[in-house]
Prior knowledge:
- There is one protein chain.
- This protein is α/β, with parallel strands linked by helices.
- It has three domains: about 5-130 and about 305-315, NadA-like (Rossmann fold); about 130-210 and about 325-340, 3-Layer(aba) Sandwich (Rossmann fold), CATH 3.40.50.10800; about 215-295, NadA-like (Rossmann fold, 3-Layer(aba) Sandwich).
- It is about 45% helix and about 15% strand.
- It has helices at about 5-10, 20-25, 25-35, 40-60, 70-75, 85-95, 105-115, 135-145, 160-165, 175-180, 195-200, 220-230, 245-250, 255-265, 280-285, 310-315, 325-340, and strands at about 60-65, 80, 100, 120, 150-155, 170, 185-190, 205-210, 235-240, 255, 270-275, 290-295.
- The chain is globular and about 65 Å long.
- The protein binds 1,3-dihydroxyacetonephosphate and iron/sulfur cluster.
- 1,3-dihydroxyacetonephosphate binds near residues 67 and 83.
- The site of iron/sulfur cluster (SF4) has 13 residues, from loops.
Amino acid sequence: xxxxxxxxxxxxxxxxxxxxxxxxxxxxxxxxxxxxxxxxxxxxxxxxxxxxxxxxxxxxxxxxxxxxxxxxxxxxxxxxxxxxxxxxxxxxxxxxxxxxxxxxxxxxxxxxxxxxxxxxxxxxxxxxxxxxxxxxxxxxxxxxxxxxxxxxxxxxxxxxxxxxxxxxxxxxxxxxxxxxxxxxxxxxxxxxxxxxxxxxxxxxxxxxxxxxxxxxxxxxxxxxxxxxxxxxxxxxxxxxxxxxxxxxxxxxxxxxxxxxxxxxxxxxxxxxxxxxxxxxxxxxxxxxxxxxxxxxxxxxxxxxxxxxxxxxxxxxxxxxxxxxxxxxxxxxxxxxxxxxxxxxxxxxxxxxx
Length: 353
Ligand code: 13P
Ligand code: SF4
């Protein structure tokens, strides 16, 4: 759970006063998050929430927030929340003129690629991703030379340059469907080695991998999973497929962030541990007060760069605008749109465990 200390450390921009007017404007939202955010913390957040929600209307803006955003953002100012695939779909269809991406840079680029006529803002330009940083467009061109004719499936956690060199994109929600949609005996899957290996366990298609890793999920081990089972008898273990295959193999269910949320909603386990970024449990626990969440905490330092004060600054100053070279964007869009055309994720492919 977010603590006052975390909030102070993450709030580098000036605090705003908690006035009766702010209290009135945020009354309904306060009720919604009461269980999760203590009063003392709320008084720091509420002035930003009130101002951001007013500015969104003024500027015809929407905030798209990933499931890993902290509860003070996820439950208060976000217009749409979801996994990478859901946010990309939302970016493609929104009527708003401005999209503020409460997530990381590749997500903002994907929004810009899908909605080139919109202004796309990211509140902190340094919000990167270890997977996106693990491969360049030049690397992909070399892979093509080395494996002529083998289709390249690229995880959305990559730069526009890398997407532009690819045949099709995927997310963790639809990776198996995308690989099988190509009808090829062999595909190259970049850059997440663990996601690729987890996909390989679910399909007959041969998968060539790249050695990129998510710095959050690579830290979990099979030993951690066994320790959760021992210390919390009966716990249901949900893991993200960016975790190493031996972690996924020991879990009860493995899927994208939205698939994990879906599992909790459908099955209502008594006790659950989400082997993923730590804000997930905070956000999901609000909707399911009857479920006990065991909370190991691996933070994504990139996702945590996004704060309420930075979102406010972003809307006030229209920064930082994310742009993509139109020629690269056109080729990257083709790869993303091919993925979207594969359709909604198949239920039988949701569980990697
Ligand atoms: P999904 O939300 O698509 O499962 O992705 C997880 C992730 O690590 C995004 O950066
Ligand atoms: Fe990248 Fe992992 Fe952070 Fe997602 S959680 S943005 S994959 S480093």
